[in-house]
Amino acid sequence: AIALSDEALQRGVKDYRHYYYRGYGWLMKAQLRVLTKSYWSAGREASHGKADLERYLDKYPDDPDAQGALGAYLYFADALPGFIKIIAKLFLIPEGDRQRGLAMMEFAATHEGAFSTDWRFVLAALNLVFEGNVEKGSDGLLRLLKEYPYYTRLAEAVAVVETLYPARTREFFAVVETSIDDHLSVGEQYADWELIKRMQLVQAFTESYFGNPRDAIEMYAPLIETPPPHPDWIVPIALLNRGFLQQRTGKADEARKA
Predict the structure, then answer these.
(1) Using one digit for the tens of pLDDT, what is the confidence trace for 87-102?
(2) Are 134 and 164 in contact (CB under 8 A)?
(3) How far apart are CA 185 and CA 107, in angstroms?
(4) I want to staple 101 with a disulfide (CB 3.0 to 4.6 A). Which of 71, 77, 177, 229 is the partner?
């Protein structure tokens, strides 16, 4: 994308979309540089990407996808821990702006664009993890899940939120149960069992502390008896929690076997 846009712009093609494509490409490349700890290259490429996207947005300020791309950069660059910001300055990585970035991603999520659904998910995750707004983040996930009921990974995120929002724990629990049933309804041979077992583990944990411990004991059984090959931590966690519940419910002998 960077090379093709470079070539087009050098030929004098007057199409501002090339600034968008190239800017997006530079930011994605900078992200990979950070993951490989090539900070000097990351700083240079992030600077190029930010400049290209800002130039494109000067011409098309209402493009939601460009707003989202630049907004994500601005948000995360400002949300980094302080010591990383110092490193960023040393390597000339452009500074961020958390509030401006958040506003730009909200614009991207609420206006029609090629990636508007992706920005809605990113925004929901940001509200949950970075902004600490569990209600806003979980409502965003629930709206997406209602539109895409067979995209079960959305329900996994809802499952994680269950115990963090006691006022709506049972509501979220029911949503996740329905999503698991919908996923399995297309045929168990097509099921993503690693995903389903992870979700069932969270459901059993939620039932342990927000429902009936005896029901939770039963929910742990299939996780122990028919575990997925991955992740390998499901069985030990299920055994530990089931043993704890068995002891709580007067089944000390069974707990010791666990």
Answers:
(1) 555 555 667 789 999 9
(2) yes
(3) 36
(4) 71
